[in-house]
Specification:
mainly alpha; 2 strands
């Protein structure tokens, strides 16, 4: 085992080591303990394992450690596709409900179509408003109500 940093030379015996110039003399110095080959260094992976475990928990992933753009780390295309799937499911549910109630307004039908997917809140809010209007009793129109009130007041005056 030779190489830089792999052999220890006795600092006190520097002159004697310097004077020896044959293999036989070198073997004698090794036997005496003036030249020692150092043991091989252990290349442990414990630090790497510890770092990998920390990374899996989400450590060391702040802004300074980001490699790659925001789009590369979490593509917006995936979010768009997820959102579209949610909206299509909602629109299909609304279409099934509309088949049960035939009197659904046409603007809600247009909102529920897959080609015109708007936000989830818009889809549901339009439906909720329409359902509230159905549940409330029909109030008399203002013109008809005022004429009935006027006729009733004339009768009471006589």
């Amino acid at each position: 085992m030779c190489g830089r940093g792999k052999v220890w030379l006795d600092p006190n015996e520097g002159n004697e080591i310097f004077m020896d110039n044959s293999h036989q003399n070198m073997r004698k110095l090794v036997k005496d303990g003036f030249i020692i080959s150092k043991p091989t260094k252990i290349h442990s992976r414990s630090h790497a394992r510890r770092m990998k475990e920390a990374n899996s928990k989400g450590h060391h992933s702040g802004y300074d450690n980001n490699k790659g753009t925001r789009e590369a780390r979490l593509p917006t295309k995936g979010n768009v596709i997820k959102n579209k799937c949610v909206l299509t499911k909602i629109s299909i549910r609304q279409k099934l409900r509309r088949l049960e109630r035939k009197s659904c307004p046409s603007n809600l039908i247009l909102r529920g179509q897959r080609t015109r997917l708007e936000g989830k809140e818009i889809l549901l809010s339009g439906r909720n408003v329409w359902l509230r209007e159905l549940e409330q009793p029909a109030a008399p129109t203002s013109v008809a109500a005022s004429s009935q009130l006027a006729q009733g007041s004339k009768k009471s005056n006589k």
